[in-house]
Amino acid sequence: MKPITEYQDYRRYMQDFYEEKKKSGFTWREFSKGAGFASPSYLKLVCEGKSSLSRVGLPRVANAMGLLGYEFTYFEKMVEFGNATNDEKKKAAFAELTRIAKEQKARVIDSDTFAYYESAINSIVRELAPLMPGALPNEMAKRIKHLYTAQQVRDSLAMLTRAKYLEETDENVYRQTDKAITGSTEAIPLALRSMNREMTDLAKEAIDSVNVHERNISGVTMGVDTATLARISEEIDKCRRNVIALANGCKNIEQVYRLNLQLFPLTDKV
Q: Using CA of residue 145, residue 146, residue 151, residue 155, what is the dihedral sign?
């Protein structure tokens, strides 16, 4: 099996543990019995996402898998991360997963991608820095239309270069290493929600602070059925891909823009 610190989903870790042990005849019944559960299929249901591991059951399962020391603590935080009911609890658990892994000098899957998406400043600086060769962080901060400090820009540059999203080719001269940034399905959606909230706030600021000729903000309130909603979503996805293609083809970049595409329900189904 991979080291436990390469996991963020406790169900996947338990499933991989079972698959590894199954090679020598191990069964779900044995797994559940070893963890002290009466139901022979309980842990199978947990791994399938049909049930969640409780705080009482957590140490039993960890002991059944032979987890001790930091591995036990890491598994405990994985369960907290997977079972968290809100983003603040998820962030706290993910921070602990990252801390424990770094203490063990282990690779932290997606930690840099998580940091990138957690704040809007990182995507802004990633696009802006290559446009301003030789510029200092305070000069970049002044070019951003929203209230970000020179220290925030400096911290963002440090993270972006460490994560190899930007490469410093000369003193204060940067280039993008790749056009796309991707991550796993466990942690990244959490960070994306944080960035989308922040970007939505910036859009609200732009209504008052940006000249109407420099922005395009509009909306429509409509009634639809399920089939039409699916077709509209497809059109939005197609529009986003077309916009990305246009932006990627731009050879003389002058400014950094953000496009928010927001489609959400205003009522329950009637």
A: negative
Q: Which residues contact 231 (CB under 8 A, 6 or more apart)?
A: none
Distances (CA, A) of 35 to 15, 31, 65, 162, 231: 15, 6, 9, 42, 48
Nearest CA to 79 among 173, 9, 183, 144?
A: 9
- Nearest partner of 52 among 6, 114, 9, judged by Cα: 9
Tell me the sheet residues that pair with 174: 168
Instruction: For residues 105 and 78, give the distance between their C-alpha atoms in angstroms, rounded to a whole number.
Output: 18
**Torsions phi, psi of 173, nearest 5?**
-120, 125
* Buried/exposed 113-130: b ≥16 CB within 10 Å, e otherwise: bbbbbbbbbbbbbbbbbb
Average per-residue pLDDT for the chain: 90
Which tens digit of pLDDT belongs to each residue from 121-136?
A: 999 999 999 999 999 9
Please give the Cα distance from 5 to 101 (Å, whole number): 6
- Taking the alpha carbons of 112, 114, 119, 124 in that order, is the dihedral positive or negative? positive
Length, in residues, of the chain: 270
- Provide the CB-side half-sphere exposure for 230 (13 A, CA): 2
- pLDDT tens readout for residues 134-156: 999 999 999 998 889 999 999 99
